[in-house]
Here is the input.
Amino acid sequence: MEKKALDKPKIEILSQKDRVIFKPYGLWVARTIRDVEQTCDEILEKTYPKFLIFDLSKLEGFDTAGIWLLQRTIKKFEDMNYKVELLNASDSFLNLSAQLNLYKPSFEKVPVQRSFFEDRLVNIGIATKNLFDLTVNLIVFLGEIAVGSFDVLKNPRRLRMISIFFHLEKFGLNAVMIISVIAGALGLVLAFQGEEQLRRFGAEIYTINLVSISVVREVGILITGILVAGRTGSAITAEIGLMKINQEVDALNTFGLNPMEILIVPRILALIFIMPILAFISDIMGLLGGGIMVLISLDVSPKLYIYRIGEAITMGSFWVGIIKAPFFGAIIGIVSCFEGMQVQGKAESMRTCTTRSVVESIFLVTLADALLSVFFTKIGI
Here is the structure.
């Protein structure tokens, strides 16, 4: 076995007109072979001319593991109908290679048989690693958003107002109809169910209080957040993901433009600005839907209904729901843009990231709503 230096193994690829030359460098031995195994797998995924040459003139050292990896790579090329030629192989390399051929090593990966417990443990480990990687990437993404936002605040001229107004219309005006219908229907259902339960105690008049406080403090903003996460969040992820697949984000970097300022910050700001307006519309429509049911079932006048609403809803209750809105907008915007930037260039990846964006946004919005509700209750609002 030859051994001149402890250089890490690598492969240099030289392209000619009708052939490709692969030149292994460094020390191909058992303790260093893992450094180049992934490289060998990657070169097998690419397309080359039909004639390939493996030039071993720069191979500084090898053992059985190194020869096995080279043989496996060459064998897979031959199985793909490439014509492979070996050049500048030393006598020791050829002798050791011939001895290894006597054992006819298998180049196929043998699946590992694991027990049920081992399989669950491996799945937990994979999920933990994926969660850790996702958390690290999210922290990095938040840092990039912070830097981009700081640059915009430092130089307001870089704030793309046209883009923000475009997204305000897209995220807000176009969502008013669906939010109004869902919020109105939800207020109607709350009034119907509340009236049915309170009638047992002869307190059905308090249905108005129940609907008013529930819609303004919790239901209105929560249903708005869920609808925006499902409608707008998925659209943002798909839109940015498609830009990633079409390499438009790479093109922005090539031209020296910051994708954070152009793609991310305007969308997040638009959601932060529009969510309080959507929450207010949701509150109004929820109260209107509840009022329709109350007027029908309790036979009260509209004037009495409005008067009871004024008694039940305080300014504190109203602002609790409105204050939550910008937080929900920021959560939906950050998660949606983050998942859009995670698309890896395949349609399958975009589908996965879009689904994950909606699920994560709804989960975080619901969690934030619970935490903020407890907080506002503890401080007496």
The beta strands are 10-15, 19-28, 51-55, 59-62, 83-87. Residues 1-5 have pLDDT under 50 and may be disordered. The chain has twelve helices and five strands. The longest helix spans residues 116-154.
